[in-house]
Structure formats: structure tokens, C-alpha cells
Backbone:
């Protein structure tokens, strides 16, 4: 970069110049950078460091560049190292000498911290919207099949019958918390670092609150060193993304298992399935597998940023430039995963018969049989033992619990009576559950009733003007 090198005698080595440039990532930050400059120029005007004419000239120039950037006509040149110098040079070309006043009381250090925060906030807003859509898709699917009863699993072994809707709403809860985490991260991200300068603030009478207000930031930095040197908001964004990706991956894995021939509980429409180049019969859930597959790279970026930050001495360090690509990459990946999962859920069909058949294996109701004995007054632990013995006898006889005669039951406990066979009904099993938050039919139905979409869009403290 041949700008800003008056104190140097030699040119910057061209390979070094390319190495230190951040323009690849900065492509994503042009609008944020211009927004920041507009707010800074307005503030300089208001405090009298720029005359009204100079302010107007600078704002006009910045708005012209903004229009070009919005139309995709603003190209970053690598010789100018980063987006900040590119904008400064473009402004000089656009309006002349007044451009040289814009950088008063500002450093690229507080500028880049601001741009990164603006970008992160705009992505959080998009992600919150995408999570909302996914939550809605889960509720819609649960409502569409509100009667479906399926096996619930522990250790991936059939455990007890559950409502399919209860399973969908379990994922709903996870994504609800993810959404909250992004909203919460937004609070700490919406703190303007503009005015921190290189790290010590400025001797000029700037007002960081004015520029922050114009940018819709609710808060302003308290410590100028902290303002330029931390990127914990990026780490928070990546953690919120990593946990969302974890939930997406768990949902993906669950659906992949359910869609296998062996389970056969669900199928996806052709719109979201792919086939094999060799085996013509194959209908594969590749998009869902890819959601699971992309999780690793998101985790990797979280470790990437934590590792980058952990070694930094106090103050601005150029390493911080490396925090931008993970943020940009993860924002794109998590957004696309959320969108694809929403489409997949929407295009998912349920085989209710297959689900009910699997849930109707009498062994699935062994716990209900234990509760049958508890209701007859037998202590729980003894009831558990009795039913375990009954299960063992049926297995030895190679018959189901439903087929086994009453005499065999009575040989273990005289508390058994002919009404025991009524327990072996999966639909009745879920109807009987009535504890808080359970899969009980009335509980699930009222949970569904409470969810009247579309959900109110959560408000975050900052809305990007871009
Ligand atoms: N390009 C840098 C970044 O992306 C900002 C420039 C700060 N450079 C400096 N020498 N202080 O983080």
C-alpha cells in the first residue's frame, strides 16, 4: 500500500502487501463501513470540527459511494489494504480535499471494530428470522399430524410411546433457546466502539454518543482499549451458531434415522431428496446429511476465534483481522442450514401407520404395566421387579406380553387381573400421561393450541439500516 507511507523510505514488498490485506473479508463490510463513516462525519459536523459545508460535502460523497456499493459497483482495491482505506481514497476521488478531514479522531482500529459489530448484528437479525421460520415449520408439522403416535427412544432403544407432535415440540424448545441466545448476544454486540480511536481515545472534543445514536446503538464503549481489542461478541456469535448447529445436527440425525427403510416413519418429497449415480432406486436425504456435515466446520471456527483471542496482549493487534472470516463464513453457513432444514420439515411426510405399529409393541407399555401395579398399591421398586420377571417369562416363551395368559402373570403377582391387557394400547398409553410437560394427549394438544403462528418477531436492540 503506497498510502500512509511517508515516514518510510522503501516500498512495501508486494507479497507482504497481499498478505496483510483484508479486502476479501472486507467485501462484506462495505455498507457497514460507510454507515460508520456517515455517522462519524455527522458527529464531527455537530461538534464543529467540520464546517456545515465540509460536512455536507463529505456526507454527499459517502452517500454517492453508498449508492454505488449497494448497486454492487464499488470495487475494493487490494493496494489500499482494507475497506477503510478504500473508502477514504474513493471519497477523495469523489469530493476532493474535504475527504482528508473525515478520519479526525478515528482509527481503523475503532472503525473495524464498529464494522464487525454492525455486520454481526445484521446477521443476528437474519438468523433470528430464520430460526423463527424453522420453529413455525416444526409447529405446522406437529399440527398436521397431531394424532400420530410413535415410539419414543432412550439409548435409541424403543422406550415408551410418545406423540409425534411432542417430538417436534422438543426441537422447537431447543431452537427457542437458540433464538434467545442470539438475542442476548445482540445486546452485548450493540455497543458502539466508535470514538475509541487507536486505543486511547482522542484529544479532539468528539462525542461518541452522537455517532452511536445515529447508528441505532443503544450503548457506547466505556473503555477505549477494550473497545478496540476485544472480539468476544464474535466468539458469542460463533457459540450461539455452534449450539444452533448442534441442535440442527441432532434433528438431522433423528430424521435420517426415521427416514431409513428399517424405521420408515417419515419420508421426504422428491423436492428435497437426491439419488445415486449408480443405484437407481436410491432416495437419499443428502440435504439433511449436509446440515449434519457442516456442523464440524462451525465448531472449528469457534475454536479458531477462541485460539486467536487467547494469546493477544492488551491493545489492538493485527491478529484481530482474522476474526472477520469465521464470522462471515459461519453466518452464511448457519443461515443456509436453517433455511434448508425449514424446507425439509415442510416437505416431510409421516407414515402414521408405521409409527403406531412400532409404538404398539406390548413391551413399549412395560412401564405402564409397572404403573398399573403401583396403582394397585405395590411399591414402585417391587412393581418394576414383577414386570421385569413377566417380560423375562414372555421372552423365554417367545411370545408377546399381550399373548401371554393371565395365569402366567398371576404366577408372578396375584395383583394382576384381566384388565392388565388394556394397558397394551399405545394410544391409551399417551392418553394416560398427565404429568406436567409430558407426552400426554391433552398436554400436547394444549401446547399446540398455545402456539398460534406466525410467532411475534423478537425485537433486538439494534436494527441495521443497511
Ligand atoms: N484491516 C484491519 C482489520 O481488518 C484494520 C486495520 C488496522 N490496521 C492497523 N495497522 N492498525 O482488522
Residues:
Amino acid at each position: 500500500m503506497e498510502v500512509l507511507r511517508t515516514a518510510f523510505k522503501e516500498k512495501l514488498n508486494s507479497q507482504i502487501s497481499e498478505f496483510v490485506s483484508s479486502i476479501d473479508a472486507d467485501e462484506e463490510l462495505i455498507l457497514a463501513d460507510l454507515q460508520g463513516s456517515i455517522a462519524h462525519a455527522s458527529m464531527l459536523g455537530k461538534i464543529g470540527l467540520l464546517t456545515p459545508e465540509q460536512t455536507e460535502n463529505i456526507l454527499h460523497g459517502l452517500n454517492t459511494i453508498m449508492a454505488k456499493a449497494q448497486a454492487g459497483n464499488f470495487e475494493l482495491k487490494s493496494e489500499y489494504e482494507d475497506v477503510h482505506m478504500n473508502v477514504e481514497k474513493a471519497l477523495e476521488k469523489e469530493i476532493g480535499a474535504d475527504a482528508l478531514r473525515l478520519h479526525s479522531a478515528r482509527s481503523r482500529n475503532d472503525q473495524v471494530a464498529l464494522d464487525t459489530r454492525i455486520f454481526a448484528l445484521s446477521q443476528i437479525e437474519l438468523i433470528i428470522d430464520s430460526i423463527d421460520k424453522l420453529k413455525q415449520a416444526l409447529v405446522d408439522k406437529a399440527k398436521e399430524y397431531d394424532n400420530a403416535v410413535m415410539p419414543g427412544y432412550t439409548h435409541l432403544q424403543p422406550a415408551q410411546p410418545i406423540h409425534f407432535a411432542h417430538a417436534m415440540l422438543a426441537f422447537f424448545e431447543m431452537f427457542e433457546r437458540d433464538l434467545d441466545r442470539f438475542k442476548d448476544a445482540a445486546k452485548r454486540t450493540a455497543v458502539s466502539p466508535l470514538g475509541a480511536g487507536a486505543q486511547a481515545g482522542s484529544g479532539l472534543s468528539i462525542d461518541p454518543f452522537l455517532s452511536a445514536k445515529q447508528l441505532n446503538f443503544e450503548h457506547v464503549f466505556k473503555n477505549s482499549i477494550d473497545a478496540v481489542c476485544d472480539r468476544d461478541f464474535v466468539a458469542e456469535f460463533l457459540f450461539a451458531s455452534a449450539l444452533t448447529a448442534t441442535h440442527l445436527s441432532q434433528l438431522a440425525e433423528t430424521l435420517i434415522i426415521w427416514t431409513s427403510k428399517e424405521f420408515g416413519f417419515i419420508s421426504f418429497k422428491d423436492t428435497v431428496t437426491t439419488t445415486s449415480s449408480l443405484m437407481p432406486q436410491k432416495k437419499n436425504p443428502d440435504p439433511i446429511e449436509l446440515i449434519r456435515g457442516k456442523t464440524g466446520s462451525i465448531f472449528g471456527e469457534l475454536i479458531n476465534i477462541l485460539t486467536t483471542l487467547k494469546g493477544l496482549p492488551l491493545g489492538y493487534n493485527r491478529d484481530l483481522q482474522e476474526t472477520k472470516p469465521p464470522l462471515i463464513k459461519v453466518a452464511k453457513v448457519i443461515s443456509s442450514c436453517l433455511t434448508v432444514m425449514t424446507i425439509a420439515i415442510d416437505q416431510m411426510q409421516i407414515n402414521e401407520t408405521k409409527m403406531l405399529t412400532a409404538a404398539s409393541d406390548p413391551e413399549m407399555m412395560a412401564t405402564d404395566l409397572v404403573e398399573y401395579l403401583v396403582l394397585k398399591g405395590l411399591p414402585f421398586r417391587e412393581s418394576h421387579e414383577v414386570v421385569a420377571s413377566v417380560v423375562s417369562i414372555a421372552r423365554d416363551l417367545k411370545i408377546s406380553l399381550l399373548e401371554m395368559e393371565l395365569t402366567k402373570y398371576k404366577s408372578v403377582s396375584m395383583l394382576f387381573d384381566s384388565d392388565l391387557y388394556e394397558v397394551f394400547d399405545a394410544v391409551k398409553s399417551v392418553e394416560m400421561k398427565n404429568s406436567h410437560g409430558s407426552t400426554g394427549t391433552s398436554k400436547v394438544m394444549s401446547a399446540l393450541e398455545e402456539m398460534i403462528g406466525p410467532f411475534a418477531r423478537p425485537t433486538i436492540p439494534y436494527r441495521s439500516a443497511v
Observations:
- The longest strand covers residues 157-163.
- The chain has three domains: 2-104, 109-202+222-358, 360-450.
- The beta strands are 149-154, 157-163, 191-192, 219-220, 266-268, 348-350.
- The domain at 360-450 is CATH 1.10.40.30 (Ribonucleotide Reductase Protein R1; domain 1).
